[in-house]
Amino acid sequence: MKCPKCHAPMESVLHHGQTVHRCGGCRGLWFGENQLTLLASKKHRHMLDIGDETLGQAFNDCHDSTCPSCQTTRLQRRPVSGQEYLMVDECPQCQGHFLDAGEFLQYQRPGVFGQLKAAYARLVA
C-alpha cells in the first residue's frame, strides 16, 4: 500500500487487534472502515501516531489524494464532528480515513467545544 500524500510505502501496524497502515515517509495513518472511531477509544493510542505534527501540517495541504485501499477513488476532506478545526481525508467508497501525522492525537482529544457539549448533555440528561 502506498501513502496517498507522499507516495512512500505504508507499513502494517497491529494495534488492539486492528491492522492500521502507517506511512514510512510522512508518518500519516490509514484507518479502514470503522477503525478510526474504534481505536480512538483504546489505550496507548500515542503509539500509533508517532509522526512529527509539523511534517503532518505540511502534508495537510495535499488535496489531490487517491485512496490507498481502493486505488482509484479520490479522498475527500471533511471536518470531524465536534472538532471542526480538524480536517481528515475520507474515502467515499470504502469509508477509510487518512490522518496526517499528529492528527490522530488531536482526534482523540475532545476540543473545548466538545467538552462543553458533553458536559451540557450530562446536565440535561
UniProtKB/TrEMBL annotation:
Q: Name one Pfam family in it.
A: Zn_ribbon_TFIIB
Domain Transcription factor zinc-finger positions: 2-39, 66-106
Show the InterPro entries listed in the entry: TF_Znf
Q: Could you identify this protein by its name?
A: TFIIB-like protein
Per the UniProt entry, what species is this protein from, by scientific name? Answer: Permianibacter aggregans
